[in-house]
Amino acid sequence: MQLSDHLEAYDEDLKQVVIRISEVTKKISRGFASRQGVSDSSNIYGEQQLTMDKWADELLIAELRPSGLVKSFASEEQPDVLTFKSSTDIGVTVDPLDGSSLIGVNLAVGTIVGIYRGSVLSPGSEMVGAMYVLYGPLTTLNYCLGDGVHEFVLNDHGEFILQEQNVMIGGSKIYAPGALRRDYLPAHREFIETLEEEGYKLRYSGSFVADVHQILHKGGVFTYPAYQGREQGKLRLLFEVNPMGYIVTHAGGAASNGEQNVLTLKPLSVSQRVPVYIGGKKEIELVENLMKGE
Question: Which contiguous run of DSSP H or E holds residue 191?
Answer without folding.
Answer: helix 186-197
